[in-house]
Amino acid sequence: xxxxxxxxxxxxxxxxxxxxxxxxxxxxVDDVSINLFPGEVVGLLGHNGAGKSTLIKILSGAYQxxxxxxxxxxxxxxxxxxxxxxxxxxxxxxxxxxxxDNLDAASNLFLGRELLTPLGFVDxxxxxxxxxxxxxxxxPNFEKFAAPVKSLxxxxxxxxxxxxxxxxxxxILIMDEPTAALGVQETKMVADLIGxxxxxxxxxxxxxxxxxxVMALCDRVSVMKNGQLVGTEYVKDVTEDDxxxxxxxxKKPGEAASQV
Length: 260
Description:
This protein is an alpha/beta fold and 260 residues long. 36% of the residues lie in helices and 24% in strands. The protein has helices spanning 2-8, 52-60, 82-87, 105-109, 124-138, 154-167, 184-199, 211-217, 240-249, 255-258; strands at 14-23, 26-36, 41-45, 67-72, 75-77, 90-93, 172-176, 203-207, 220-225, 228-234.
């Protein structure tokens, strides 16, 4: 209870209020409000078509909301495109990771934003030094700096994608299925990365279909169904069955039992 009260006394890093978006007659997101605090991981769960990805695409600038407000650090912002989102220090790490397979970690880290020498040439040495610094902070076991990223494991590739976001001052990370198709060790690597980001005060929205992931990685879980928010619960206060009931029945823990 103490943790919850202290969070409520703080200003959320992100607050999405009464967000609505319809495609034709279909309400993809219908009056949804969620928030995220610094150093917190909030999982977004729901069946395909529940609206979770659409909601997050509004925050990332891929879609424009029909109505509602977005606040960053308590101030209203306008996010009309991905550039606006980045200016708010919001970065999205898609399931595909958007890495250039034939390039090494440093080249991927600075892709499109290369560091240059005073003469205007690409400064490979400085980029590698910066890559070693940021990856050393996030994943001390990362060693394959010269290898093309296509040769890296799934967890190492996640490390590169996360390092790219954090290097360019992301404070809000959107992670789409970060452990999909990863083995046990790779999943642990991603969990360790998320733990490090937490310590640095970065807030994370984690989109997932996997209840086990959410229970292991998140502080709170928000469940959506048919474009609406079923509810948001602290992970420590619910069971996997409670969350499953929210996803399938669209009811908060206790509601389903009380209506039997």
